[in-house]
Amino acid sequence: MSLGINEIKIILSEHNLLKKIVIGDHDTFHDVTYDSRNVKKNALFFCKGNFKTQYLSMAKDSGASGYVSEKQYDEGNGLTQIIVTDVQKAMSIIGAAFYGYPENNLFIIAYTGTKGKTTSSYFAKSILDYTTNKKTALLSTIDTILGNQSDQKFKSHLTTPESLDIFKYMKTAVDNGMTHMVMEVSSQAYKKNRVYGLKYNIGLFLNISPDHIGPNEHPTFADYLHCKEQLLVNSDTCIINADTDHFSDVYNAAKATTEPENIYLFSDHDKKLLDNRHPDFIFDSVADTINDNKIKLLPNNEKVAKMNLSGEYRIAVAGDYNESNATSAIIATALAGADAQDVKNGLEKVFVPGRMESYNANQNGFVYVDYAHNYASMHALLSFLKKGNPNGKVIVVVGSPGNKGEDRRKGFGMALTENADEAFLTTDDPAFENPEDIIEEIDSYIDHSKVDVHVQLDRRMAIKQAILSGNSNSIIVIAGKGRDPYQKINGVDTPYETDSVVVKNVLKGLENE
Ligand SMILES: CC(=O)N[C@H]1[C@@H](OP(=O)(O)OP(=O)(O)OC[C@H]2O[C@@H](n3ccc(=O)[nH]c3=O)[C@H](O)[C@@H]2O)O[C@H](CO)[C@@H](O)[C@@H]1O[C@H](C)C(=O)N[C@@H](C)C(=O)N[C@H](CCC(=O)O)C(=O)O
Ligand SMILES: Nc1ncnc2c1ncn2[C@@H]1O[C@H](COP(=O)(O)OP(=O)(O)OP(=O)(O)O)[C@@H](O)[C@H]1O
């Protein structure tokens, strides 16, 4: 693969990004990278983010022959220097060109929303695996799956990767024979222009509630919503949860670039629809107990009746909120070619790592490992579990991260007060904060007349104590980390075997006692 300066000049000019080019010894590049530690000979190096000039010197020493930057640097003398108005945007369009526009060879389903992106993406992939005979790639918060061999699947670093990685992954997926891709698109991906210029066949908007607002993410809720809406602006076909907050705003964003005929709305039968929303599909809960989750899908007009999706679908993952996640996946995958049987198979067989993973602890109750890590998700999770288990205790192990999402602490306090009986407050990615201070803050929002609170800094120990405190009617929730394999402590990702493994070890220990 290679990319010449003339093509770069054309695409940057087309996007009005080019400020200046100084041609150096080489004007054709054989690799693209934003990390000086990975520079190959004749690479084009991008100076972005918290960049330091020594990275450019390092890149030059390692054989880079050009760089792209918003500023010209003496350290880059002798290299081809491409000076642009926005390096993140430039990186995305150059990345697409370098990898030969692999997105054109994939049917792309893209998800956004505050909650449910990962779960719904796994639902959609599971269904499409039947339709495409396992030729569906996945870019998710948990795993990146670019093929069916073991080395074509790995843990993701970000929900939505950097643009160069996205196009590289897409090219790899195409080379591996993949025809479809399901991807999560975070609001940060738009904020940082990681997906600049990328178009999706189908874009889905699940829901929005305040999250990711702070000095390092979005300055305001309006900015957060705006970034999320960009996914719809860049999609040929849009699917929107008609029950979402800020529906009118969201619908108008979709309508800006998509004809109403290509916008599909769905709604929960039990939710009262506001304004004049006319959902195309309505889902109705047939079973939403802890052991059985099933919906009935009802087409609501002629446009969608011909999709032949009317019927009942069992969902392998518990949680009433997963009914709307599943509905979104049904509509998206049907538009991508799935039939009702693929949908049935996919939803019945799906497994989502770290999301409502259940373990039978016998005389100690039932354990769920779940990723709920803010008020909206914790409230959705605990109210569902409490409703399904009115006579048993709901026991929750939870902590809150340091140096980010500080409002989550109050959210956890509130959600625990509303639906938990017992809480074990513990450590979860304390970063540079003292975990005891974080716990104290969560605790200050808990009503102690309703919740029995224990403090146990050691997360493994907290899980063990919570399980031991249960009886056969109890539900024990290990919340917030899912399958995160580390604790972020003082800037270091300290390895952690994951909540799922800790639970399994505790249960094994109990069996052997
Ligand atoms: C805010 C943001 O987008 N930050 C991301 C961004 O940071 P950055 O560009 O400032 O990079 P940096 O790590 O500070 O380094 C600066 C540059 O120098 C380079 N470098 C660095 C060291 C070196 O020796 N040589 C070198 O060339 C780096 O490769 C980088 O290009 O690029 C880095 C990788 O290139 C990411 O790791 C980092 O993600 C941060 C850590 C992160 O986790 N961000 C979160 C907020 C995020 O994006 N989350 C969303 C999900 C949340 C949601 O649902 O909205 C996500 O999509 O994951
Ligand atoms: N539609 C939903 N509404 C509310 N809560 C949900 C919904 N779907 C999932 N959840 C809860 O939120 C948690 C996170 O779900 P998931 O990972 O699918 O969402 P996400 O959008 O990828 O989240 P994040 O951006 O935080 O990674 C789940 O473990 C569950 O507790």
UniProtKB/TrEMBL annotation:
Catalyzes the addition of L-lysine to the nucleotide precursor UDP-N-acetylmuramoyl-L-alanyl-D-glutamate (UMAG) in the biosynthesis of bacterial cell-wall peptidoglycan. It comes from the Bacteria. Residues 112-332 form the Mur ligase central domain. It comes from Apilactobacillus apisilvae. Belongs to the MurCDEF family. MurE subfamily. Carboxylation is probably crucial for Mg(2+) binding and, consequently, for the gamma-phosphate positioning of ATP. SUPFAM superfamilies: MurD-like peptide ligases, catalytic domain, MurD-like peptide ligases, peptide-binding domain, MurE/MurF N-terminal domain. Residues 354-482 form the Mur ligase C-terminal domain. It catalyses: UDP-N-acetyl-alpha-D-muramoyl-L-alanyl-D-glutamate + L-lysine + ATP = UDP-N-acetyl-alpha-D-muramoyl-L-alanyl-gamma-D-glutamyl-L-lysine + ADP + phosphate + H(+). InterPro entries: Mur-like_cat_sf, Mur_ligase_C, Mur_ligase_C_dom_sf, Mur_ligase_cen, MurE/MurF_N, UDP-N-AcMur-Glu-dNH2Pim_ligase. Its EC number is 6.3.2.7. ATP binds at residues 113-119. UDP-N-acetyl-alpha-D-muramoyl-L-alanyl-D-glutamate binds at residues 36, 159-160, 186, 194. It is found in: Cytoplasm. This is UDP-N-acetylmuramoyl-L-alanyl-D-glutamate--L-lysine ligase. Pathway: Cell wall biogenesis; peptidoglycan biosynthesis. Its cofactor is Mg(2+). PANTHER family: MUR LIGASE FAMILY MEMBER, UDP-N-ACETYLMURAMOYL-L-ALANYL-D-GLUTAMATE--2,6-DIAMINOPIMELATE LIGASE MURE HOMOLOG, CHLOROPLASTIC. It is an enzyme of class 6 (ligase).
